[in-house]
Design goal:
Elements lengths: L3 H46 L11 H19 L1 E6 L9 E5 L5 H5 L7 E6 L8 H7 L3 E3 L5 H16 L3 E4 L17 H9 L3 E6 L15 E7 L9 H24 L6 H12 L1
Parallel strand pairs: 1-7, 2-5, 2-6, 3-4, 3-5
Antiparallel strand pairs: 6-7
């Protein structure tokens, strides 16, 4: 039979452990609540706002900005997230390319309200989603059919050049898909072709959003997402020199933002793991 002292010690240990489960429970509940709110807000927007995309004006952009701003606001309000924007003074006027680090779905939403008329380069499959694909076409998004090979690159370059000439801001994720924070960079040559074709400035964007909105995960961590607009790269470089400069600029800044998050008071789990890996390297 266990002694009273042993029972007392186990009781104290269980009381000390109990509070640790509360933050996890809160995080899970917040994450689920946000996912429900996000899909509900999007569904209601498409249900009650589909007629906006049938009106005769060329691009129903204010509606898209409202939807994206609402999704980001819900994320901040429900999940306890702050957003810090840096380098806003580096955003040029008129039409230009935007080359952003891509770690999560968050930046596909949050970057939209930052520009007068943002236009994404996205995969063709997204255009096949009912209602959503129609809305993307009406707002002038540039879809690329990767299966078409070189033909797709030529078409994408032509449409991007026309969009930039029209004063729009064309957003491309140079790595083509989401990459986890800390993963080795994998920049594609497509962004170099667009840079040459458009003969316009390219605005690099660094961020650490993947620490708080991890790819392939439904969990949303609290903290401060930092987005930094870096000095634009002027047109005129050859394709290879531009690609090297772009990768070095974005990766150096993004690594710095990840390290900054890891050094904070309550770093997210991935930031802690990356910091520990760096210390042992």
């Amino acid at each position: 039979m266990p002694s009273a002292e042993g029972v007392s010690r186990r009781g104290r240990r269980s009381r000390r452990r109990a509070p640790k489960s509360r933050p996890v429970t809160v995080l899970v509940l917040r994450s689920i609540a946000y996912l429900v709110a996000l899909y509900l807000f999007t569904a209601l927007g498409l249900l009650f706002g589909w007629w906006v995309f049938l009106l005769p004006w060329p691009k129903p952009w204010p509606f898209v900005r409202f939807w994206a701003s609402g999704c980001v606001w819900l994320h901040q309000a429900i999940c306890g997230v702050r957003v810090e924007w840096r380098g806003l003074e580096n955003i040029p006027e008129g039409g230009f390319l935007v080359a952003s680090k891509h770690q999560s779905m968050w930046e596909t939403l949050a970057l939209i309200p930052c520009f007068r008329h943002a236009t994404f380069i996205l995969k063709h499959e997204l255009m096949m989603i009912p209602l959503f694909g129609f809305a993307m076409r009406r707002t002038g998004m540039i879809d690329i059919n990767r299966a078409a090979g070189a033909k797709a690159l030529v078409e994408m370059s032509a449409r991007t050049r026309a969009a930039v000439a029209d004063g729009r801001q064309v957003i491309i994720f140079p790595e083509g898909t989401r990459r986890a924070p800390g993963a080795a960079p994998d920049y594609k040559v497509g962004v170099g072709y667009l840079y040459e074709a458009c003969q316009a400035p390219c605005l690099p964007v660094a961020l650490n959003a993947g620490l708080y909105w991890p790819r392939r995960s439904w969990r949303r961590y609290p903290g401060t997402i930092i987005v930094e607009f870096l000095p634009p790269i002027a047109p005129g470089l050859d394709r290879k020199a531009f690609l090297r400069l772009l990768q070095e600029t974005i990766e150096t800044a993004s690594d710095r933002l990840i390290a900054e998050a890891a050094a904070g008071d309550r770093p997210p789990p991935l930031a802690r793991r990356l910091a520990a890996k760096a210390e042992t390297a």
